[in-house]
Write a structure and sequence with these properties.
With 338 residues, this protein is mainly α. Helix content is 68%, strand content 0%. It contains 18 helices and no strands. Keywords: Bacterial flagellum, Cell membrane, Cell projection, Chemotaxis, Cilium, Flagellar rotation, Flagellum, Membrane. One of its GO terms (molecular function) is cytoskeletal motor activity.
């Protein structure tokens, strides 16, 4: 008897779906997943072999139905989604889709904070216990959490960062209690939720990556003092300005084309010789000579100016990575060979 899509595991369906999407789109999807999920999916894709056309079509149809149901559910609730799907798929098929969707249809706690002014949130949370602050930041978008973390006192920054990194699971009741208290303080009313898995290294890395260089340095120094091994693990997942030495020459050249010479000169003040050499060898002889002259002409430069220029260049590097134009090796990433 031929296998059907309904008999496949969710993992296999996801693998089939990614293969049908093509490399570029699949890479974007994988980029949003945890490392363990990427490994599982990659292994499953390797095991796929030849995909039966009918099964592939069934999987695509199921994905489409789930996506449509998800959109309708957000617009009018699961009951509304079910009614609309019944009209097009029939009662039994619609119920199956909605049942699968409802199991995962939850909203992130503290969602109301996404609409709040980060400075306002900071004024309310900075007097809270560090564990409470860590819990709140771990649930927030990285860009916003970074602004709030940057506003905390130096010692508190390190404490909160450490707590985010080692956080695993938190009781839904505790999350709801903290959320309710913060909602009252901010006079906001939004839907409740009960997700409980938060924290870990990646949320912290995302937050630090969006912080200014001075905040990044303070957090990393504080983490290193508290937990050297954890600090090193976080550092291995981040891209620091000095890590430009690990980029291949083609990537460095792409970066240099998008960087202003004055920013480059300022960023290279006081850096290690290998960092400066990595940059100059990827310039023409004349451009390298001009750069060295400009660095010398700068004289004494405030550390904050150097860090700001370095941060601009790091943002260029991260943008190029996100667009797929360059690849950054982190931590224990495997090497690639052609």
């Amino acid at each position: 008897m031929a296998e059907t899509a309904t008999q496949l595991s969710g993992l296999r369906k996801a693998a089939i779906m990614l293969v049908q999407m093509g490399k570029e789109q699949s890479a974007k999807v994988l980029g949003q997943m945890r490392e363990s999920e990427v490994e599982e999916l990659t292994a499953e894709i390797m095991r796929l072999g030849t995909i039966d056309g009918n099964i592939a079509e069934e999987v695509l149809d199921e994905f489409h139905n789930m996506a449509v149901a998800n959109r309708y559910a957000h617009q009018g609730g699961l009951d509304y989604a079910k009614e609309l799907l019944e009209a097009s798929l029939g009662r039994e098929a619609a119920e199956a889709v909605v049942n699968r969707l409802s199991a995962a249809f939850v909203e992130m706690p503290f969602a109301f904070l996404q609409k709040a002014d980060p400075r306002q949130v900071l004024s309310f949370v900075q007097e809270e216990h560090p564990q409470t602050i860590a819990l709140v930041l771990a649930h927030m978008p990285a860009a916003m959490a970074s602004q709030i973390l940057s506003g905390l006192a130096g010692e508190l920054q390190a404490d909160v960062a450490h707590r985010i990194a080692i956080m695993d699971r938190t009781s839904p009741d505790i999350i709801r209690q903290v959320e309710s208290t913060l909602e009252r303080k901010l006079s906001s009313v939004l839907q409740p939720s009960d997700l409980s898995a938060v924290g870990g290294l990646q949320p912290l890395v995302d937050i630090i990556n969006r912080a200014d260089r001075a905040t990044e340095r303070l957090i990393m120094e504080g983490l290193a003092a508290r937990d050297p091994e954890l600090a090193e693990e976080v550092r291995s997942k981040m891209f620091m300005f000095e890590d430009i030495t690990g980029l291949d020459d083609r990537a460095v050249q792409l970066v240099l084309r998008q960087v202003e010479t004055n920013d480059l000169a300022t960023a290279l003040k006081g850096v290690r010789e290998d960092v400066r050499e990595k940059v100059t060898r990827n310039l023409s002889a004349r451009a390298a000579e001009n750069l060295v002259e400009e660095i010398d002409m700068l004289g004494a430069v405030r550390l904050r100016q150097v860090e700001e220029s370095q941060a601009k260049i790091v943002q260029v590097i991260r943008a190029l990575e996100e667009s797929g134009q360059i690849m950054i090796r982190r931590g224990d990433d495997d090497e690639f060979v052609a």
